[in-house]
Amino acid sequence: MTKPAVLVARAVFPEVLDKLAQHFEVSANQDDVVWTPLELIQQLQGKLGAFTTGSERIDAALLAACPDLKICANMMVGYNNFDLAAMTAAGVLATNTPDVLTETTADFGFALLLATARRITESEHFLRASLWSRWRYDMFAGSDVFGSTLGILGMGRIGQGIAKRGALGFGMNVVYHNRSRLDAATEAACGARYVSKPELLAASDHLLLVLPYSAESHHAIGAAELAQMKPTATLINIARGGIVNDAALAAALRAGTIAAAGLDVFEGEPKVHPDLLALKNVVLTPHIASASMPTRRAMANLAADNLVGYLVHGQPLTPLNPHLLAA
Ligand code: DGY
Fold first, then answer.
1. 108: which DSSP letter?
2. Active site (annotated) includes residue 240
3. 79 near 88, Cβ under 8 Å?
4. Residue 299, pLDDT score
5. Distance CA 221, CA 261 (A)
6. Which of 214, 267, 257, 216 is nearest to 237 (CA)?
7. Is the CB of residue 77 below 6 angstroms from any atom belonging to ligand 1?
């Protein structure tokens, strides 16, 4: 019996390809070529499944040109590269990788917060440039994390992980805003208090963004929001590019509207706004919040298990449009 054909659109752990090869004819991309939309369509011809990352946009035009496609398994928890409505309309199942990256990503959010507040990369660059000649009372003096107010915009699994780290580990006063308020028991477990968005902006010494990207959250932080923050505040974005207006943020950082920013995601990444690159009071990392080896393995395995689960057993593990299964 011929095996169903699947495409693995980006390079991945070899053992994950081996696992997929037990069930499928696998077309891999271990050279990690980032295909144009047209090349992706060509690669998907005759494929029933696709293992995707955030680089592959799955929209109505692609779906119309790939009639054999039944499932796209994203190796990410975020899925803004999917037009979920178009996928559902085309009967194509979508899956993502929730839970397996929660703690690693929360760790990274905290790492970026600490690096930004305590000016770690800026001071390292100074030292490496052989500019350090003596101690000075205010040299790279940043802002305190312990005991300060941590604001979290978007209180899903990762936001809750960050809240616990702040409340339990750093004695922080944690406030959050979310589309829907958490139940009282979850709020208590996170040590977090629900506030309105204006209250969150005004109260936060450190504001962490962890909300999903959507038309609704596009530029959730722009010039107007930055103007409501404390001049001593730091802003950390580990969510998605486009949630922050990067040009407005660069202007605010330059003007001293807020003190500093830590950014793991960018509008139009991997390009980074040139104004951000020119600033010292911003810590920049290349979308690596989930990048520990164990977590990246777990994400890749979950995406592969979703392909096997659906195409072989009819039951994916983490579907985003599960009503297709009942249809
Ligand atoms: C995700 O899974 O959405 C993360 O952004 C990956 O790092």
1. H
2. yes
3. no
4. 98
5. 12
6. 267
7. yes
Domains of the chain, residue spans: 5-100+293-326, 102-284
Q: What is the pLDDT of residue 264?
A: 98
Number of H helices, E strands in the chain: 15, 12
Q: Which two tokens stand for residue 144?
A: 């305190």
For the domain spanning 5-100+293-326, the CATH number is 3.40.50.720
CA dist 218 and 28 (Å) reads 33
In angstroms, what is the span from residue 138 Cα to ligand 1's centroid? 37
Distance CA 176, CA 208 (A): 9
Same CATH fold assignment for domains 5-100+293-326 and 102-284 = yes
> What does CATH list as the number for 102-284?
3.40.50.720
Cβ-based neighbours of 287, under 8 Å, separated by 6 or more:
264, 265, 266, 269, 270
Hey, which of 74, 105, 236 would you mutate to test ligand 1's pocket, going by the most ligand atoms within 8 Å of its Cβ? 105
What is the distance, to the nearest Å, from the Cα of residue 134 to the centroid of all Cα atoms in its chain? Answer: 40
Residues in the chain: 327
| Consecutive 10-residue averages of pLDDT for the chain (327 residues) | 95 98 98 97 98 97 98 97 98 98 98 98 98 98 98 98 98 97 98 98 98 96 98 98 98 98 97 98 98 98 98 97 88
Residue with tokens 């985003």: 320
